[in-house]
Design a protein that fits this description.
The structure is a single chain. By secondary structure, the protein is mainly β. Helices cover 10% and strands 35% of the residues. It has three domains: 161 residues, Lipocalin, CATH 2.40.128; 90 residues, Immunoglobulin-like (Sandwich), CATH 2.60.40; 116 residues, 2-Layer Sandwich (60s Ribosomal Protein L30, Chain: A). Strand 15 and strand 16 form a beta hairpin. The N and C termini lie far apart (74 Å).
């Protein structure tokens, strides 16, 4: 027989929102999420203990090691009370909520570890629980191969741990087996991985990586590469156009574009990124600036990249740059020169419209006179159709 639910004391239920809770095995400590004025922002994880009179004490914030300015959700505490699983859309996520693990050692919680792909994806992965045997786990995720909305998935931990590098190259986890899936096509993510290095010294860099949904100009996730190796890993689901930006103080940002079709097969892309310091003469390709076909009209998908360039100019007020347009060799030289110049001018107009002084911006069209790849292939022509900026003064 089940008992009626009993409301917890007011000192626990006095936040704006209490959404998730986990009770230790001995029932003397309760972890829960709450949105409160004394938090770090968004929902934080709190804990409360029972006193000698069996009353719940005033809740205490678990601290900044676990909590972030974003939301924490879906708490699970191990049987011994020393391992905490939770979801967060802060820390180093692949996108949305990811599941993290932290252990209580020497009187404090360790830095959360992202459980990594294939458990975590760019979608929301929440409410992880571990079976008492430690051989299976269950969690909720919204995946394209599901039945719709959030589905419940089971993962099995098969034998000894096998290394799987995720995110910043720090996490090692077992291969996992998903529960049986619906009959329709299983989503096949593209895995992008590599290292971020100084372009001159090839020293590994801890840099900030942002993943943008270009179709919506929305930030999907941001995290940092490994501080020791510069390694990173990103899982990209099909059917989206991704803008990826890598930035670090005193360096020019680097951007990449990945337009992954809905029917794309699973594959792994190795992409090492060399960041360049701000020096006169340095050129950077703006891979996420897009124009309408045969026009100089900036498409909406360009906004995030343009704003990154604006931010760079705003942070370095003495920086003076040239914006240049380039084309492939299809069409006449005069037509391509005019098209490339008008596209470069469109970028300058956007930046001056945001408040950047005209004296800091030059624009030039080079047509197909400066190719960076062969014009004999479609892939080469695509690389040649580009917008660049060059540092003139710093």
């Amino acid at each position: 027989m089940y008992e009626y639910p009993e409301r917890m004391p007011n000192n626990i239920n006095d936040g704006q929102k209490q959404a998730s809770a986990a009770l230790t095995f001995d029932k003397t400590k309760l972890y829960f999420t709450s949105l409160r004025e004394d938090g770090y922002g968004g929902q934080d994880i709190y804990y409360t203990k029972k006193d000698a009179k069996n009353k719940w004490q005033r809740p205490i914030n678990i601290g900044a090691t676990i909590n972030t300015p974003y939301d924490e959700e879906g708490i699970f505490i191990s049987l011994d009370g020393n391992t905490l699983y939770f979801s967060s859309n802060g820390h180093n996520t692949m996108g949305g909520f990811d599941i993290f693990k932290s252990e209580y050692k020497d009187g404090s919680w360790t830095n959360p570890v992202n459980l990594g792909y294939p458990i975590n994806t760019p979608d929301d992965d929440v409410f992880f629980t571990m079976a008492a045997s430690g051989q299976r786990g269950y969690y909720s995720s919204k995946k394209k191969d599901g039945f719709g909305g959030q589905d419940v998935y089971m993962i099995a931990f098969l034998g000894a741990s096998k290394p799987m590098i995720v995110n910043a190259g720090e996490v090692h986890f077992a291969y996992l087996k998903a529960a049986p899936q619906p009959a329709h096509r299983i989503e096949q993510n593209t895995i992008l991985e590599g290292v971020i290095l100084d372009s001159e010294t090839l020293t590994p860099l801890q840099a900030t990586i942002e993943i943008i949904d270009n179709s919506k100009n929305e930030l999907m996730a941001n995290f940092e590469s490994n501080s020791n190796s510069g390694a990173y890993l990103i899982s990209l689901k099909p059917g989206m156009n991704y803008g990826i930006s890598v930035s670090k103080k005193e360096y020019l940002f680097h951007s990449e574009n990945f337009d992954i079709p809905e029917d794309a097969e699973a594959k792994k892309i190795q992409k090492d990124i060399l960041l360049k310091k701000v020096e006169v003469g340095i050129k950077i390709v703006l891979n996420n600036i897009f124009f309408d076909f045969n026009k100089s009209t900036l498409r909406d998908e360009s906004v995030a990249e343009l704003d990154r360039l604006y931010k760079l100019l705003d942070e370095l007020p003495t920086l003076k740059i040239e914006i240049s347009g380039h084309t492939d060799n299809i069409g006449s030289a005069s037509y391509n020169q005019s098209l490339s110049e008008n596209r470069a001018k469109a970028v300058v107009n956007y930046l001056t419209g945001k408040g950047i002084s005209k004296e800091r911006l030059l624009f030039e069209g080079y047509g197909f006179s400066q190719p960076i790849a062969s014009n004999d292939t479609a892939a080469g022509r695509q690389q040649n159709r580009r917008t660049e900026f060059k540092v003139l003064e710093k």
